[in-house]
């Protein structure tokens, strides 16, 4: 059975979206996540275009991937340059990937107006660039930019370009609907014609400008495409690229084609949320397949039918993509989830235990307040242990005060925090300055507690995220803070929610410390040491 | 030339979306807006299902519509009831619309499991309900629910159902992909078969569960559908309905079919935002055709090409749907972007002017510090005017102090801000409490300035975003704040960056106010008024 290869360009085309910027660190984490999800190709960036991408390829060289191939992206050589002297092509080689993708023009208008060169020179640019790279890397893909538009205007020339690419030895030829303006039947018939004449493996790269990105990719596969390029959640310039999170289940569950394994499919929802988190984008509730609402039933007719047979109003089994049915009037799946989680945390609890119901209520209350435990399982475990009467009190909170003062326009503000805590009846008051109020609070709190719990020295903060929950409320909106902390052998996420960012951060900080003292250091004996004089 | 009828169900199917609720007032305003936009049918609700919809039809009776027909929606009579005694059908008549749509089952599994009746009774339900309504209203539409799924499982029966509807005299038969699970080629071939055997006018109703809602609607039109049902912005249960805001331009500009007039097309973007506003949903920036980013260009290659010929990277002329090309200011930008932007702001500047180079340097410095002007064009314009010596000083900053104090664990913290500013040598000290430090600062600052600049009363904050730039630095990371503010006739974004979230928010707040005073109110005379005693 032929496998359709999934080629992800979230890190390159996806990051060209207006509101998306990834740090190099983000890009590396996403690349590994895509690899764990069974994606075949991961386009990491365009080393010729910006230093951040060069940095990415340098760093990524040292990490190993299960199966995904990392790809460096760039363009054909410039007009009237020798390939071996073209800086762009040399950047590609320096990236040191085993796979390289270059794009070239296949629309005559673009050759004349954008490149400002003649049609024959463009053919040489394509051929020479591919030959140059083919001699130096193991796999070369050629993206025929604007192929469908070009073919509609001047089929002979568009065809000549990919014929050149084939002759030059490209391993893949990818037909691109760069402007996202084509209709599915156009993509299908043009692709079919090309597939009849080209022996090289063909791929497709579509955009969503007509809200047809996914449809166009599927139409191409129907006509013989063996590779689909796109991005997670459809990120990308303008209206985005074709959304791989929708393409994959359509290929697999609707068209019966092999692409990702069943196990990988089950992780699609998690992948979608993970990438949204790093892009600091709020989750698209109505996203096909993986959205929170994708299998949520509200209409009375639907709800009663769905109870009798889920197939009545669900086009697939949600579990297959890691999602679940939600009946908005009364969520039945809740209780079993609580028990499932408890077991995960090694807590012994019975589903008939009334505490389970209480925990469920508490969880729902918290979620209504804006808490979200995806990525904050540390706080979730603490909440559970508390609900089961298993949470130890390591210190008693008394109070805090934070002052931020700015005295002159050209002067940086001073942030100072005072914290009062009690450990075994000993009250501790400490103050600290910091880069901003939250950092000052963090420092003061650790200062106060480290005397009693030296193991806090081992703990450090890895990640601090802030999400405004109801943005339209302006500066009085609710704020959710996610912290990622860890020590030598584990990592944990904690969450806080409040209209006051300092209070929200405080909650997440306290949880992070309690997790360290109560759970992470569970195996070591945790009792307050004698305070150093 | 045949006209494809546009049937909107935003007010009924659209409002079944998990996060959308319209008041009766909202529904009436939207109905009139759809009418002004040339839509042919407006489905107002399901009077049988809830009192709010009954209310809507009572109110809407008294208002007149240019051309749109208001439609009441409901189901066929219940099993083993007489049509004239069926409450649901009578509700439909009481709505008093000239057009009525009823849905019936065409999937045998649904008849048996959801309706729990036999196949012949379902045929009678369809026929008798249509006859009953046809005698009492001028136009009756029959929605064949789950038609495509039904046809795939049991074509004979699915076909029997619509044949009954035709015999009973339905004016339209609408084939529905209720679960949104069909592929475009399936929709096309099934629709084609039906169109060959049914004389009644055919419509299509699709959902977006496979991210193919728009593609499926277009496939049906290719196969003979004369009516497309959908919603504005694709609202709807689960993953939503087919998005009419994308269907219309595809029909008109890509398929060359008549549906809405050119004038109505130009109002699509405004319609999309209007409905988002009433639904209290923030605008989908990447929405095809009408999104803020739909014709926004960031990639350097794209920007230079778009300048030479917009067709290079735009699939349609954005003006046709009321949208426009935007060139994004970002680290990719060069001198020409600066000049382009200056012209946009109505600033007269020559590309040879050394100030342009200085501005470019300043922009790059700012971006290295973490400033980002996409979405913060207000701050960018202020920076430009300052660079060109055109920025007016409306007040002098002296200082601020923010205190956040929490005294007990179970007690909400108190946030208080003090602000000192000078306006025409008059020093003003004000303090305010708020929901968190930033809100307190915001309030105190406005309090201080509104006495002198009453027009600040017109300004409000729409959006507040916080992005941690180097998350891995934990609580000492750099923070970028984006604010969106506006008044009765415009909106502007401003930005601030600092390790201190309060300082970052302060910068963005100051810019927002300066923009209001110096630019938004440009045409009104802006001089400090005499402070009220």
Automatic annotation (TrEMBL), chains A, B:
<feature type="domain" description="Pyruvate carboxyltransferase">
    <location>
        <begin position="4"/>
        <end position="269"/>
    </location>
</feature>
<dbReference type="Pfam" id="PF08502">
    <property type="entry name" value="LeuA_dimer"/>
</dbReference>
<keyword id="KW-0028">Amino-acid biosynthesis</keyword>
<dbReference type="Pfam" id="PF00682">
    <property type="entry name" value="HMGL-like"/>
</dbReference>
<dbReference type="InterPro" id="IPR013785">
    <property type="entry name" value="Aldolase_TIM"/>
</dbReference>
<comment type="similarity">
    <text>Belongs to the alpha-IPM synthase/homocitrate synthase family.</text>
</comment>
<dbReference type="InterPro" id="IPR000891">
    <property type="entry name" value="PYR_CT"/>
</dbReference>
<keyword id="KW-0100">Branched-chain amino acid biosynthesis</keyword>
<keyword id="KW-0808">Transferase</keyword>
<dbReference type="InterPro" id="IPR002034">
    <property type="entry name" value="AIPM/Hcit_synth_CS"/>
</dbReference>
<dbReference type="Pfam" id="PF22617">
    <property type="entry name" value="HCS_D2"/>
</dbReference>
<dbReference type="GO" id="GO:0016746">
    <property type="term" value="F:acyltransferase activity"/>
</dbReference>
<dbReference type="InterPro" id="IPR036230">
    <property type="entry name" value="LeuA_allosteric_dom_sf"/>
</dbReference>
<dbReference type="InterPro" id="IPR054691">
    <property type="entry name" value="LeuA/HCS_post-cat"/>
</dbReference>
<dbReference type="InterPro" id="IPR005675">
    <property type="entry name" value="Citramal_synthase"/>
</dbReference>
<keyword id="KW-0412">Isoleucine biosynthesis</keyword>
<keyword id="KW-0012">Acyltransferase</keyword>
<dbReference type="InterPro" id="IPR013709">
    <property type="entry name" value="2-isopropylmalate_synth_dimer"/>
</dbReference>
<protein>
    <recommendedName>
        <fullName>Citramalate synthase</fullName>
        <ecNumber>2.3.3.21</ecNumber>
    </recommendedName>
</protein>
<comment type="pathway">
    <text>Amino-acid biosynthesis; L-isoleucine biosynthesis; 2-oxobutanoate from pyruvate: step 1/3.</text>
</comment>
């Amino acid at each position: 059975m032929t496998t359709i290869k999934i080629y992800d360009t979230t890190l390159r085309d996806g990051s060209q979206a207006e509101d998306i910027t990834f740090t190099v660190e983000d890009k590396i984490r996403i690349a590994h996540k895509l690899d764990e999800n069974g994606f075949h190709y991961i386009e990491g960036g365009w080393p010729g275009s910006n230093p951040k991408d060069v940095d990415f390829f340098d760093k990524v060289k040292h990490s190993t991937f299960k199966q995904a191939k990392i790809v460096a992206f760039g363009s054909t050589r410039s007009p009237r340059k020798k390939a071996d002297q073209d800086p762009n092509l040399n950047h590609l080689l320096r990236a040191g990937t085993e796979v390289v993708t270059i794009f070239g023009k296949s629309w005559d208008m673009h050759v004349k107006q954008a490149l400002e060169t003649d049609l024959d020179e463009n053919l040489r640019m394509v051929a020479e660039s591919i030959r140059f790279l083919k001699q130096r890397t193991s796999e070369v893909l050629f993206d025929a930019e604007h192929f469908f538009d070009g073919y509609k205007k001047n089929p002979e020339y568009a065809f000549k370009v990919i014929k050149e690419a084939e002759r030059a030895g490209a391993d893949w030829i990818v037909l691109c609907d760069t402007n996202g303006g084509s209709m599915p039947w156009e993509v299908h018939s043009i692709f079919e014609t090309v597939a009849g004449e080209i022996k090289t493996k063909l791929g497709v790269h579509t955009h969503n400008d007509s809200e047809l990105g996914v449809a166009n990719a599927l139409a191409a596969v129907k006509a013989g495409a063996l590779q689909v390029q796109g991005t997670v959640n459809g990120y990308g310039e303008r209206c985005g690229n074709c959304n791989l999170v929708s393409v994959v289940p359509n290929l697999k569950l609707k068209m019966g084609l092999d692409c990702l394994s069943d196990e990988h499919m089950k992780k699609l929802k998690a992948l979608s949320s993970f990438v949204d988190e790093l892009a600091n984008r709020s989750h698209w509730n109505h996203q096909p397949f993986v959205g929170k609402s994708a299998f949520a039933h509200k209409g009375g007719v639907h709800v009663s039918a769905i109870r009798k047979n889920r197939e009545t109003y669900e086009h697939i089994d949600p579990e297959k993509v890691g999602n679940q049915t939600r009946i908005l009037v009364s969520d039945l799946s809740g209780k079993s989830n609580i028990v499932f989680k408890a077991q995960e945390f090694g807590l012994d609890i019975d589903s008939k235990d009334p505490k389970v119901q209480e925990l469920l209520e508490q969880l729902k209350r918290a979620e209504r307040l804006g808490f979200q435990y995806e990525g904050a399982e540390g706080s979730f475990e603490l909440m559970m242990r508390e609900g089961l009467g298993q949470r130890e009190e390591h210190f008693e909170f008394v109070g805090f005060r934070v002052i931020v003062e700015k005295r002159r326009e050209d002067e940086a503000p001073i942030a100072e925090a005072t914290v009062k805590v009690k450990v075994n009846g000993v009250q501790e008051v400490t103050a600290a300055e910091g880069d901003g109020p939250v950092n000052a609070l963090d420092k003061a709190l650790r200062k106060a507690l480290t005397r009693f719990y030296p193991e806090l020295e081992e703990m450090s903060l890895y990640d601090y995220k802030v999400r405004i929950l109801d943005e339209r409320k302006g500066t009085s909106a609710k704020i959710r803070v996610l912290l990622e902390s860890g020590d030598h052998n584990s990592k944990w996420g904690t969450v806080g929610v409040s209209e006051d960012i300092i209070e929200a951060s405080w909650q997440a900080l306290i949880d992070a410390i309690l997790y360290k003292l109560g759970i992470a250091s569970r195996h070591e004996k945790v009792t307050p040491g004698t305070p150093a004089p």
